Amino acid sequence: SVPSAPTSSTEIQSDVRVRGAREHNLRNLDLTVPRDALVVFTGVSGSGKSSLAFGTLFAESQRRYLESVAPYARRLIDQAGVPDVDSITGMPPAVALQQQRGGRSARSSVGSVTTVSSLVRMLYSRAGQYPEGQSMLLAEDFSTNTVEGACPECHGIGRVYEVPEDKMVPDPTLTIRERAIAAWPTAWHGHQLRDTAVALGFDVDVPWQDLPKAERDWLLYTEETPHLPVHSRLTLAEAREAIAAGTEPTYSGTFVGARKYVLDTFANTKSAGMKRRVAEFLTAAPCPVCHGKKLKPEALSVTIAGLDIAEFSALPLHELMTLLEETVASAEKSAEADGTPAAPDGAPGEEISAEKLATTVRLGGGLIDRLRPIVDLGLGYLSLDRSTPTLSGGELQRLRLATQLTSELFGVVYVLDEPSAGLHPQDVTALMEILDGLKDRGNSLFVVEHSVDLMRHADWLVDIGPGAGERGGQVLYSGPTDGLAEVEESITRGYVFGGRGLESHEPRQAREWMRVEGIRRNNLRDASVELPLGALTAVTGVSGSGKSSLVSQVLPALVGDRLGRPAQEDEPAPEGDELLLTDEPEELDGSVSGELTGIRRVVSIDQRPIGRTPRSNVATYTGLFDHVRRRFAETPEARERGYKPGRFSFNVAGGRCPTCEGEGSVMVELLFLPSVYTECPDCHGTRYQSSTLEILWRGRTIAEVLAMSVEEAHDFFTEEFDIMRSLTALIDVGLGYLRLGQPATELSGGEAQRVKLASELQRSQRGDTLYVLDEPTSGLHCADSDRLITHLQTLVDAGNTVVMVELDMRIITAADHVIELGPGAGDDGGQVIAVGTPEQIASAGNTPSAPYLAAALE
Ligand code: ADP
Ligand code: ADP
Ligand code: ZN
Ligand code: ZN
Fold first, then answer.
1. What are the residue boundaries of the ABC transporter domain, all occurrences included (predicted)?
2. What is the mean pLDDT of the chain?
3. Which structural domains are found in the chain, ordered by start?
4. Predicted-complex ipTM score
C-alpha cells in the first residue's frame, strides 16, 4: 500500500498555541508563541501576565504531568484547579521558578535549596582530612539535620536555651503572692502553683530576695513535680494552723518549677499566644559543645584546606570557588606526580591515597560547576550556610535558576517571575547570558518581566493589557520586540522605545542633614552616611553591596532608638520556634547625630508579608473592613436580629462558618501526597454561616463584598467616605485589581509592600515621618513605578523624608539625593562610593551606576 502523508497531529509543532484562555481576567484570548525562544510577558500589574504564564501555561503543563505520572492524583488536580482554557498545544513540560510567597523554613539554607550541601558532605566524607586514628564518616554524619550528624548537646540547632533567674524573676523585691515568679502562669494555674508552694512549706509572703538561696533555686529549677493536698489562698502560718487543726484540704495541686514550666510549655503548647508568652523568659546562647556549628565533634574534626565543614560553609561562594579551584589543582598535580603524594591543603603528615586525590578532583570539580552559575548570577557574596528567610525573593529565585542550569534538562519550558528583581543593571547582563545558555541547550523560556533591558533582549514579546483586572486580559501584541513600536494602545511601548517616563526633576534642598556614623552591620564596616531631611534619597549599588543592610536594617533601628521608640513594625510578631531560630546577625552599631528636626516616627515599608495566615487580608490590614462590618451591623435586619459588627468577622466565633472557622477552606490529607487545602464543604468558601449571609447591605452579602476587587468596591461604596479613603489609596498605589478578601499569604512581596504604602497614604499627613523602603518598584511595570514615585513625592512635599533602595536608574533620576554603595558585593562592598544629585553621580562617571544613570538622564 501507499504510505500516507503524515497527518498534522504527528507533525512536530514548533510553537505553543493557546486557544480560549479565560483564567481570572483573561478575555478568552488566543496566543501563539515560539518554542526554543526567550519569550517575555509584559503589561501593567494586574493585567494578567501571571494568569497567562503561570495560571494557564504552567498549570496546564503541570496538570498533564500529574495525570501521566499518577492517575490517582486526579483528586489533587481537581483541587489544584484546572485552568480555564479551551486548548493548549505544543507545550513542553514546564518548570516554574516563582518568587516565593509567604513563609519559608528557617532550616533551609543556600546550600540546601541549591543541593550543593549534599555534594559538600560527600566531599568531606570521602576526600576530607581525618585526624589520625579516626575512622571515616558517612555523608550523613556531616548533616545537622540527621541524628547521625547533629551535635548531641543542642540537637543541631547550634544554640541552647536558658531560662535565667533575672528573666523569671524580674523584680526580686516582690513576694511570690505578688507574682515575683513572673514566668509562672497567670490566673487559676498561677494560684494553684502558689498554694502548692505553701503546702510544701515555702513562705510566699516575704520578698523573693529574702528567701534562702536553696529555696529560690528549688522553686525555679526543680525537675520534681510533687502532687499534694492544698489549702486555698492561705499564708504559710495559716496553712500550718489548718493542717494542725485537721481542716479538710481544698483540692489537690501539682507543683511545677518555673524553668520546667517554661521549657515544657514552649515545647508542647499548641497555643501560639502561650508559646510567645513563655518565649519571653528564654534566652538562646551559642551551644557550648559545637559553638554554634551544629555538628557533632567527630564531624567537625574533618577538614578540607584546613577548614571544618562549618567554616567551609560560611565562606562567601566566590571565595569558596577559588579555594576549591586551588584544592583541585593541587590534587591533580599530586596525582600526576605519581608515587609522591602530598597533602593538597598542605596539612603535614597524612599520606593521601591516589583514590582520595581522584575523589577530590572529581567531587571538587563537580562543586565548582555548581557554584559557577550562582556566582555568575551575582550571588557570590552569599554563603552556603545563609538561611533562606534572610534572602530576598529575587535572590532565592536566582539561586533556583542557577540550580536549574546544572540540572542538564533540555526540552522544557522555564516559566520565570521577574528574574531581574534585585539586580543592578550591571548584573542584568549576566542574567541574560544565563537565560541564553538555557535556551541554547534546547529549552524555552517564558519570563514575566518589567526590565526594559530584558524586553529588548527577548526573541518574542507578549504585551498584555491594556489596563488591570477587567480592563486588561487581552493580548495587545505578540511578536518580535521591534513590532511593539506600532501598537498605540500599549502602555509598555513608550518605555521600550523611549521618549516617555517621568518628568525631569529639580532636586530639592535638604531641610536639615542627619548624619549616621560608625555603622556596622553585615558588610558595612564603620560606614557613615548623611541623609537630607525633607527630601527623597535613593540608595543604589550592585547586588550585595549593602543597600538593604543600610536602609532596612540599620536606619529604622538607629533612628527609632534615637527617637526613643522602635520603628513601627508592620510585621506580625514571629512566633515560637521561629522567634528563636531566626538567624539575625547580632551586631548592629552606629550613631545618629544632627538635629532630627521634624521627625517623630520611622516607618519601614518593606516586602515582608502583611500577615502570616490567610486570616489577614487587604481589607483587615488597611482597617477598612471594620467600617464595612459596621455598615452591615447598622442594617435594620441586623439590628432586629441583634447582630453586632463582630458577627460579620471571620476571625472570631459567632457569624463565621464553624466548620472551617472562617478560613473558607479545610485541609485534606492525601495518601502519598502532600496535604492540600480544599474549599470548605459547608460554607463553600464564603467563610460565613448562612444566617450571617442573610444580611444584605445594598443588596450584597459580606462574603460578596470580600470577593470584590478594590476597584469594584470603589464603585460600590462611593458615598462611604471612611471606606473610600482606603480604597482610593489602594488604587493610587496600583492595587485596584486585588480582591478585598485576598489572603495575605497570596500576595507577592511587592504587593504586600504597596498595601503598607497605601495604609500610610490614607492617614492624614502630619509630615513628621521618615519612610524607609526597600526596592519599592520591584515587581512593578514602568507605568506603575511612575505612579508610585509620584506618591512618594507627595509624601516628601508634605514634609516627610523618604529613603529608598532603588536599582532602576530611570526612577533614581527622580530622587533629590543619591547614595551609591559598593564598589562590589559582600566583603568587596559596604562602602559609600558616591553621593550627590543624580546628575552629579552620573557625571562623576567612575562607579557601576554612573553610565546607566547617565543614559537614563538623557
Ligand atoms: P499580573 O501578573 O499581570 O500582575 P495577574 O495575572 O496576577 O496579573 O492578575 C490578573 C487579574 O486576575 C487581576 O484582576 C487579579 O486580581 C486576578 N487574579 C489573580 N489571581 C487570582 C485568583 N487566585 N483568583 C481570582 N482572581 C485572581
Ligand atoms: P544589597 O541590599 O545591596 O543587595 P545586602 O545589604 O542584602 O545587599 O547584603 C550585604 C551583605 O550582607 C552581603 O554580603 C550579604 O550576604 C550580607 N547579609 C545581608 N543580610 C544578612 C543576614 N541577615 N545575615 C547574614 N548576612 C547578611
Ligand atoms: Zn551544639
Ligand atoms: Zn466553612
1. 508-848
2. 88
3. 23-101+391-496 (3.40.50.300), 164-281 (1.10.8.280), 512-600+766-857 (3.40.50.300), 618-745 (1.20.1580.10)
4. 0.95
